[in-house]
Amino acid sequence: MPVFAVNITSCQILNETEYDLTADITDLNSEICMKITAPMVSLNCHGHKIVGKGKAGIYSDKPMIFISNCILEGWDRGIDYEGSDMGIMKNVTISSCKTGIYLSSSSNQIIINSTIKGNDLGLYIGFSSGNRIHNNLFNNTNNVKIIGNYTHYWNTTMKKGNRIYSNGTYIGGNYWAKPDGRGYSEICSDSNTDGFCDLAYNLSQNNVDYLPLSNKYTPDLTPPKIKIISPKDNQIINSSEIEIKIQVSDSRLNYVNISAEQNGEIKKSVTITESGTSVAKLVVDKGGYYNITATAYDYAGNQNSTKITNILTPIGISKCDNLNIEGENYFLEKDITNKETGGICINIQADNIILDCRNNTIYYSAHGIITQGIHIDNKKNIIIKNCKIRGWTYGILLENSSKNTIFNSVFYNNTHGICLSSSSENKIYNNLFNNTNNVLFSGDYLQNIWNIEKQKGNRIYSNGTYIGGNYWAKPDGSGYSEICSDSNTDGFCDESYDLSKNSFSFGMGNFIYMLFTGLFLFEPPSEKNVDYLPLSNKFIPDLIPPNTTIKGIKEDGTNYTFGEWTNSSYVNITLNCSDLRSECDKTFYCIGNDTCEPDIEYSGPIQISEEGITYIRFKSIDTEGNNETTKMEMINILSTEQKILINDPVSNSYLNNYTLTINISILDNKILNYTNISIYNSTGDLVNSTISFENGTFTVNLSVFKDGIYNITATYYSIYGLTDETVSDNIVVDTVPPYIISFEVEKEYRRGEEASVVCFASDDVKGDFEVVVNLDTSTIGDKIATCTVKDDAGNNYTETRNYAVIEPICEENEKRCFGKELQVCKNYAWETIEICEYMCDSSLLKCIQKPVICNKGEKRCFGNNLQICKDNNWTTIQTCRYGCNETRLTCNPNPNPIKLPPMIIVYIVILVVIVGSILAFVYAKLFEKPTTTNLNQEFSRLETKIKRLKIQGKNVKELEKELNLAKQDVRMGLLEMAKMRINTIKKKLKKIK
CA separation (Å) from 154 to 65, 109, 134, 793? Predict the structure, then answer.
């Protein structure tokens, strides 16, 4: 077994553990390229291709085969497994195969992150089970074929990941496409645009993609909305089980985490996944204050949190005990009976404690000297509620304690119901006192609160629906609440109850205070301890319902008279409730028809702005539950807002049909009677019309009888006589197409040439039209050019012309020398890019500079000629008869004139003539201008020589190319250039020989 992967570059048998493909493979001869003959083989292609046309690109019948990063093309089967289980294929791309992946009797395969497209069949699964296929792209003529009633898994759970295709941040199932663009993922509904189809994709029985990918994803940048409905901040929960009601909304919600935190530490948490309103329960281990946090997470990674604080849960007690945990919430689990002699039962020893007796009793059954049901010493913010306290010397004793609250409790058969010793600002209300002495003051006489404001609530004792103060009774029936006057029988005494006059006080402080205030001369002090709302036992129910009045105010601030029509855009309605005895509790109303049931609680002005007749029905309920008979008023509004709209055709439309399909929307169908639709011509004459009773959006068909310009009018008629009109004008009906005036095309174009085509057209009806010319010079051959004209109404007309595309005279960007011009081929035509000052070199294809021959003003002797340098050329300035002196650069003088005989002179003249003739002939041959005939003769001779060399096996391609260029120069009239090429060819021929 190798330690490292084996590198491969060709088709072969794989029987080692790990292979890396390091190059593309194209093998058109192999039946199978990669044949895996051992289990647990891994092939990583690293993005390289395996191309062929045989049976299979990769084949195996062994288990646990791992294929990754491979590209397979052209095979009958891209990957062929027959009896291969428990393998993995990932990041595989398969295209142009008859079957992309073929699984026969191959189960528990994993196919992920792969692209299978452009095949006849994407995936074949026969007699296999448990295969897992997700996050793949399928786009084939047929995507999947399943043989046998087996289950396969086509998606994973929705989770963060990189999609194989389409936008989105989560993966789940597969992307199902088709070459015609009608694949399930391409056409499915994705109403919340989360990148997943709304409905699952059923491939066959037992084969469902529950999370098919869609192509309609839009990024979600909006966090979820979340709200804790209950409990509220600072709420007391009378149980160790906290029930949390939340409301969360997000179209792509993932989950919500709800946690209970105490002293900065999370004690309990729970997760829910439902949108809307849900209830979760957290059971905490012990009582105390908790903060509840709910955090919602969506699938886009957005999150939002909400928090409630100081939720108090209780500690249960079942016997007399000390309550000493500040801020704790306690409750009685059952009645407590103290049979010991004396002492304190419930001793509250810390601030901010809540004690809820839950209507259980704290009872003293023995006989002691001084006993206390509940004792509070120098503490504040204590709440005691729902207690029954009896048999004690002091039901409750408060010493030096302030700002405590005692309510909903019963004190009876105690020596003193409650004792306040130097205690102030304690709130004591809705309690029943029935003791030998209900209230005892000791120490400093300080002010306390004995009632709350009158409000709805459950009384501790006696009939009635409101609470306020306490019920004061005596064992002998002479308590203040039992004998007080209640003239209106509302359940409250007519006069307040002054406890300073009706309570027992002792202690040096009270004694001195009363002494100095004239205890024995006038009444003791009042107003410090007064129950202003003592309960009575004379309540008689209120059976008279309340009365509700209604008022309407229009937009301009004036009063509205109900039942009359107004053109105000709105009317503001106010409802006012009154009751002769009780108080109004709630007012309800409904807006709709004349039989609706008032079910909306009134909280402020109601604005009515709907056009037509609106009914408002209303009633009130008082605090005693008396229901008023429902009343009703009408609000009639006629506004001037648009009520009808022509959707199509819009103004300035062009149509090519005499039948006009008119689409209309009724914007206010509540008071519609009918609609009139009419067509008028350009002179204002009525052409056609109809009446419709439809509402909403609908179409009507109306005909015209000739081309022209028309206006469409739609008029809305309401049941109240109101009309509203809308118009689509300048509708052009044009059934005749434009015509072509001139269409000119050249007979021939060079291949690749930019063609210049002229096509002029006209139209007899108002409006623009489009001219489209189609002419192609990209390929050689006979072709047809088209000119199509189309007007705004959709009418069109086409003409054709024949043309031919021939071979261009040159290839694009080719260069040549044309005389002194350096030319390049642009758009398949020669274009001069530079004119050479001296000459253009045909072999180098560039301009060359004239060589330096001499320096300006320089002289020389050239034979008998005295020459001077002008413009880089030697110019003869004198012919020396007696020779040129090269030292002095002047002509020699005549040394001794010699007189020759006449015959000698004759012979010299004859010799000069002969030599001159010979030189003239040679010059003519060397410098005569070439002609086409001469050059063609040269071409013929050169072709013969080149053919001979070719027969001998010589390489004459350069010579043939140069000869063709020379011929081309002749055709272009460049005879001098052709002559130069011929001379070059001759020189090369000599070298070959």
Answer: 20, 12, 5, 51
